[in-house]
Amino acid sequence: MGSVAVIMRAKNSDWVIGQALASLASQDFRDYDLVVVDSGSTDRTLDLVRAYPHRLISIPPQSYYPGPVLNDAIAATSHDLVVFWNSDCVALSPHTLSRLVAAFDDVQVQAAFGRQLPRPEAHGWVRRDYAASFPATGAAPSWLPLSLVLAAMRRSIWTQRSFYRAAWGSEDVEWGHWARGAGHQVRYIADAIVMHSHNYTLRQLYGRQFIEGEADAFIHPQRRIGLLRGAVRAAAAVARDAWWCLRSGDAGGALMATPRRAVGQWAYWRGQRHGHRRRAAADGDASHGQRVVLERHESRRT
């Protein structure tokens, strides 16, 4: 495999981007060109980025829609293989990138993504979710066809199907579902390991779940999760979260299980309803979902 492009999106990431860049620079695979897409950082993010060879693409904050931004960044490169590396993910091995890239030695592989481990300070419910989503061996669960926190994709397959623009979020999941349905191979690389997780506040969780619900209305248009079914799902998740937290000695996490899942399910239902209304009206404006999530996002500076 020749030179690859590494695309890193950032905004007000100075709390972690230095670690992310240092871990990238320490990889045993060094034949890459780094492209940083910054959407209006006001902290020390760009100062930290300047310490590393890179190409900077600056966009205004209001222009940040993940799918279109990624499409534009890929179009600005000419590499046959494009790697996606979040500014808040840190490689846990010097072989992370080489093992991800090695997946493409198999000509049948069109995309691949790595394993994510939670940060040391991750809450119990976060640890439970990550254990289920990113197993140490075998394949990723069927409901996670791709995660762009750490992933790679052949340029040739992207030219066939770029990232969607219909909703603000879940561009990776939407693309992964398309790839699977079209018979393309997306491989989970369990030994390409990074550290990445978020202890969302209830406010941040609302934004995250709203955009996931909106996106699912476009990804799974025949699927509707009503309030009653959502409440049953939330209750089951509360039980699982509480049990996991109590086993881990996280009593506070167990107490927060109910409000956390209630807020998440309510936000998902509202987002899904908004998405279905947009689909029915052929409304191409995804700005409401953008506002909902970015007004609550951890990168927001007041």
List the helices and strands and how they pair.
Elements: E1 4-10, H1 17-25, E2 32-38, H2 45-49, E3 55-58, H3 66-75, E4 81-85, E5 90-91, H4 96-102, E6 109-117, H5 124-133, E7 150-154, H6 155-160, H7 171-181, E8 185-195, H8 202-219, H9 227-247, H10 251-280, H11 287-294
Parallel strand pairs: 1-2, 1-4, 2-3, 6-8
Antiparallel strand pairs: 4-7, 5-8, 6-7
What would you say this structure looks like, in words?
- The chain folds into two domains: 4-195, Alpha-Beta Complex (Spore Coat Polysaccharide Biosynthesis Protein SpsA, Chain A), CATH 3.90.550; 202-294, no CATH class.
- Helix 2 links the parallel strand 2 (32-38) and strand 3.
- The chain is of the alpha/beta class.
- Helices cover 45% and strands 17% of the residues.
- The relative contact order is 0.14.
- The longest helix has 30 residues, at 251-280.
